[in-house]
Structures are given as C-alpha cells and as structure tokens.
Amino acid sequence: MTAGPWLVVGLGNPGPQYAGNRHNVGQMVLDELARRTGVTFGARGGGLLSKRPQAAVAEARLGVLPGGAPGPRVVLAKPTTYMNVSGGPVAALARYYDVPAERVVMVHDELDIPFADVRLKKGGGEGGHNGLRDTTKALGTKDYVRVRVGVGRPPGRMDAADFVLRNFTAAEAKDVPWLVDAAADAVELVVAQGLEAAQLRYHTKG
Predict the structure, then answer these.
(1) How far apart, in Å, are the Cα atoms of 14 and each of 19, 20, 63, 82, 85?
(2) I need a labelling partner for 79 at 20 to 30 A (CA). Which of 40, 85, 109, 113 fits?
(3) What is the mean pLDDT of residues 29-56?
(4) Is residue 168 part of a domain?
(5) pTM of the entire structure?
(6) How many domains does the chain have?
(7) 130: annotated binding-site residue?
C-alpha cells in the first residue's frame, strides 16, 4: 500500500458563491484533510500545457498504516475549474504525479445516498454526476475509487441540479461537520488500509 502516491480529489465549483453548496461537499472534505495534516493548498497547473493553474494542490502523508507507521504520501487536489470540466485537471495531475487510476480517490456529493451517510466504491456508473462523468472521460477508465458523501434527494419536484447548487438547510448544517469528518476518515482508511477495509467499516451498520 505504500508504493507511490495517491491522488485525492475533492469535487466542487470555484468561487465563494458555491462554497457552501451540497455540490461542494467534496471540497469541504479536502479542506478538512488539509487541516488535519497541517498543509496549505497552492495553485498548480498539474503538468498542463497551459500556465493557468487548474487546481489547488497540497502534498501530505495521510492516515496511519497497520502497525502505527505514517500513512502513504498523498496529493490533495481541488480543481479550480467548474464541476463539469473537472476531468482535465484530474487527468493532468495523475500524469504529473504518475498516479494510476486505481490510486485516484474522488470525493463527491451523492444524491442516491441518504444525507450524512458515506459509501465507497471503485468503478461503476457515474449516476448522472457531471464531475465524475468528465473524470471518467479524461482518465479513460471508470476504475478509480469514489468516496460518496450523501446529500439526500431533492424535496418534491425540485430539480436535482438546483438542489445540489443550494446550501444545506439549517437543520442539516448541524450535522455537516460530522459528515465531513466521517468522509475524511474514510479517505484516510482507503489510502492507509485499502478500499475493502473502508467498505467494511462504512457499509456495516452497528
């Protein structure tokens, strides 16, 4: 589990007007991981031909290996593009740091999971998530890890796109720090002990 770095990406939209949206919960998780490891995000082109920065990036060691040793080296990244064109920065960073798809972890909001639940999977469909769809296209494979952060379903007939671009309700906001913390724990477990260990913990009730 220690050979080579991992790339952990938090999906979202850039700018303060989106920062508290459900769609940006992935970036909230990355901010928590940076806080835990004491690192600061800086602009990085990720090896793109353009000099314009495409992601905010920080490098750290994450989690604890069995036996207590520090966890693997990780590249934490928040694309600075809009959600539906996240794939380019993700693929560029994967090439730049020589990270294979199976060591790419995408942290994202998930409508098909109840609010405040966290689920994990590798591969599979994108469930209509434009950030994942573009990532799959750019990487040329679906075989990357997803840390799926439940934001619930829109009420009534509200459009899903409108729902994810709204902030959490006042009632939900009380649980958001807990949710972000749980998702950050899940990322740490994936990179330090593997996807199966993380699934065992987060998919088992009780």
Answers:
(1) 7, 11, 27, 6, 12
(2) 113
(3) 77
(4) yes
(5) 0.92
(6) 1
(7) yes
